[in-house]
Design a protein that fits this description.
5 helices, 5-stranded mixed beta sheet, 7 strands, 181 residues
Length: 181
């Protein structure tokens, strides 16, 4: 049976992190930057006045901390909303990764996994599973606090852009992307 309504999903990317630029941090639970409160206040101001039927978050601190700051400390944590697992490359500077698979990853990041980690199709499958389940709910408006890779997958899922265009549409830290399903 086809639904007679659409659901708006507000996807909110976490704020800046306290990680040196060029460091691969995927699913590592890193701290937010010292500018967290300032950045989070801007994100919160963009959400003010919007009523959500349900709020979800990645369990990683950088996303759940922003959800709490924005007024949703009890947001539902869902592991499918974690960033891509970068395996053996986690918390290593890209320039210091001595792994032949890194070059192959750069050449075909839409299909190749990080060594010991996930590929983009696996991340997409995780996010699509979450969104497929969400589509079956009677909600009109939902908030999801997550990560850049999750927002890219949701944007593809929601028809905002194609996989080939995805990385040209990366939402900035603290930014919001809206899809309808």
């Amino acid at each position: 049976m086809e639904r007679g309504f659409s659901m708006q999903i507000y996807l909110i990317r976490h704020t800046s992190v306290a990680v040196a630029p060029g460091t691969c941090y995927g699913q590592t639970d890193v701290a937010t930057a010292d500018t967290f409160e300032e950045e989070a206040a801007v994100t919160k101001s963009h959400l003010d006045g919007i009523m959500f039927d349900r709020v979800y978050t990645s369990p990683l601190t950088r996303a759940s901390k922003l959800a709490a700051f924005c007024g949703y400390p009890q947001a539902i944590r869902d592991d499918r909303l974690k960033e891509m697992n970068m395996g053996e490359w986690e918390m290593r500077r890209y320039e210091e990764i001595d792994d032949p698979a890194l070059e192959a990853f750069y050449e075909d990041f839409l299909h190749r996994p990080a060594t010991g980690g996930e590929s983009f199709p696996i991340l997409y499958q995780r996010v699509a599973s979450f969104l497929d389940e969400l589509k079956g709910q009677p909600f009109e408006r939902v908030a999801v606090f997550a990560h850049g890779g999750v927002l890219i997958c949701a944007g593809i899922y929601g028809g905002l852009f194609t996989a080939e265009e995805a990385f040209d549409h990366q939402t900035g830290y603290g930014g919001i992307e809206v899809i309808e399903v």
